[in-house]
Design a protein that fits this description.
Layout: E1 5-14, E2 17-27, E3 32-36, H1 43-50, E4 58-63, E5 66-67, H2 73-77, E6 81-84, H3 96-107, H4 113-125, H5 127-131, H6 142-154, E7 160-164, H7 172-187, E8 191-195, H8 199-205, E9 208-213, E10 216-221, H9 228-236, E11 242-247, E12 258-263, H10 264-277, H11 281-296
Parallel strand pairs: 3-8, 3-9, 6-7, 7-8
Antiparallel strand pairs: 1-2, 1-4, 4-5, 9-10, 11-12
Length: about 300
Amino acid sequence: MTALLAVDGLQVRYGGVVAVREVSFAVRPGEVVAVLGANGAGKTSTLRAVTGLVRPTGGTIAVDGSDVTGWPPERIARLGVAHVPAGRGIFGSLSVADNLRLGLYGAGADRSRAGAQRVDEVLATFPILAEKRRQPAGQLSGGQQQQLAIGRALVQAPRLLLLDEMSMGLSPTVVADLFAIVAGLRAQGIAVVMVEQFVGQALKVADSVLVLEQGRVVAAGAPDELSGDDVAAAYLGGGEASTPVVVPPPPADAREGVRVDLGGRDIRELERLAAARGTTVSALLEGSVAGLLEGAR
C-alpha cells in the first residue's frame, strides 16, 4: 500500500540548535504510528515540520507522493492533514460549537453545508460536547477540552491526524477513553501519528513505533519487535534528553568553542528570548558567554 505520509531524512534546526536529525518514517492509510521519547527528543518539532509550522532545514516530506516540503500550513491542511498540538489550543471564551466551526477554516469549508454537517457528526461522536455545545470551552474539564481539540481537527475530515501529547495532564481513565477514540479513527481508515508519554497505552494501539533520542531515530518497528530496553533507553538514558549547542568563540582571543547541553525546556525558552530580541539562539548564547567572561576579568 502506498504511503500517505513519507518523511525522508528530515532535519529541523533552530538557529544553532539541531532539534531533528535525519528522521525518516512512513505512514499508510489507517495506520497508527506512535512517536516516543523523552522531552526535547524532537518529537514535537517533527510533527510541526510535517504540518508546515516550522520549515525543515533538510530532508523531504511527501503526502500522497507529492513533495510538500516547505509548504504553508493551510495548503498542507487542505490535503487532508490535521494537527492537534500539545496544550489543546482551544479558545476558552468561545462556545464548544464555535470552537468546532473554527476547525472548518483549515479545510476551506467554513461556509458550506458539508461543513455544518461535519460539526454535527463530531458532536454525535462526542456526546458530552453535544450536551455542552453552547457552553464556553474554558469551562470544560481537561478531558473534555482534549475531546474538543480532537473534534476540531476531525471536522476537517482529515486522512491523516497528528496528535501531540493528547494525554498530557489527564487521569488514566480519561486517557483510556482517548486511546479508544484513536482506535476508532484507525477503524475508519484515518492514519494517525501520535506523540505520546503513556507508552503502554500507545504500544497497545500503534501499528508501528518510532523512538527518538536527541533528535535521532534510535529504534523503530512494530510494537512486538521492540524490546523494553529500546524504549526505556530513550527515556532514562540520561534524564531529559539534551541537544548539544556549539557556541562560536568570541572574536578576541578564545581558542575553541564552548559546548552547552540544553534540555528541551531550556531550548524553548532560548527560542522565545531570541525571537523577542530579534536574534538567533547561537548569537544569544555567544553574547551571554562573552558577558560572563567579561564579568570574570
